[in-house]
Amino acid sequence: MRRVVSLYLPSWSTDRLRRKSGAGQAEAGLAPDTPLATALPDHGRKVVAAIDAAARAAGIRPGMTVTKARSLVPELAVIDADPAADLVALHRLALWAGRYSPFVAPDPPDGVWIDIGGCEALFGGERPLLKDLHRRIARAGFAVQIAAADTPGCAHAVARHVPAGRPVSILSGDQRKAMALLPIAALRLDPGTIDGLRKLGFERVEQLLGTPRGPLARRFGRTLHQRLDQALGHAGEALEPVYPPRVPRARRSLLEPIVTPEAFAQVIGDLAGDLADQLVALGRGARRLDCYFHRVDGRTQAVRVGTAAPSRDPAHFAKLLVARIDQVEPGLGIEAMTLVAPLVEPLAAAQADLAAGAERKADLGALVDALANRFGQASLYRAQPRAGGMPERSVGQAAAMEAASSRRWADDLPRPGRLLDPPQPIQVTAMLPDHPPAMFLWGRKRYRVVQADGPERLHGESWRGQGHEARQPFAVRDYFQVEVEGGGRYWLFRQGDGEHGATDPMTWFIHGAFA
Question: Which of 87, 215, 332, 342 is the most buried (most CB within 10 A)?
């Protein structure tokens, strides 16, 4: 589900100047409580471009001439505006906001959009994420208003037209209710359209909802209802994310929209080649690839694949991505595609094999990538030894291509290739204290033992401080390898030493099977 956060900084330009003043980088003599405004030249005069909270409280508004503003507030400090520097700083803020989501876009001149869909769980939920964002921005010295909604348009409108001292979260699907009482200026319309609507008596968004669209569209064009539909979620609105300058990415804008898998595969191949060239120049290999499909209706779809090891093989990239294009719904067509490598790692150049007729070694990494991207990363792993006194805790999962651990299992103590988790209880016929089982019943089937080896005694892990071993500090297990009629080989254990009740109640379990 899509959730978009609108970060609105009502005094972005002036707050930024105050921070620079505090660092000794701006004009001296700017007291903290002095009203501040920035100004731009306009036909031989200067007009107010941005104001801080103190100037706003005194009645000064953007667009007012500096002469009139100073007549209202004689002590007003005026500094020349620098829109280019403000935009660069806003871009840097958007990059910083990437800590909350990889999908962040500037909303010039005084905002940032953050698509947090799927990321809120990393912060304990949406509300803790918004509180953390608000706290960090406010602590940096910026006035801030934050709103979250299902659409960028609704979040943008609520952040700017619902004053609140804390983040506002619109419930999923409540865009219509949230937008109804807001002024029509909340729809991000140009000033001429807003003035025209007001002359017709429209002041709030709810008045537009019940009005026939035809007459308004003929007078004001398509933008009016496009903005309304985007805010309500009836039309898509794509955000163009920003990435750090060194993030490799490639983009292709298409002359005509494409809709077929074959066309997608062709463009993906071209993008993979462009991206591989950048990776070679940077000495990096990609571990994750995101391919964005930009539809003609403004919606953006994405496909993500990963690699088990750094790679810059364009054919490999294309093979992984083409396998996922069945997830793309092209709608009326795809007009542009972007390929990004948000996660890269160093990858040194390797000498190619120039021997004529030499067979290429099996590419284990390519096989792992194909399987992992088809069945999921969590479904592909390798077993790895780890510290543990009991068998079920002496093995862990590691990434398929992760370097092998220096820890080794004991060669003289064979273990089954697969353990049962948890061990399953069985009924056993055996002589105490140390004799192996003569027969056991597992489920409804009886197994007669023909050969056995053991016991191998393991003691409980009382240092863990919890669980069975903590409750029974003297607990032991006696393991036996047994072979039954028919050739099956199993790993059984008895809880207890067969003599003392303090070591456990002498119950039997099957813990695994040998190949």
Answer: 342
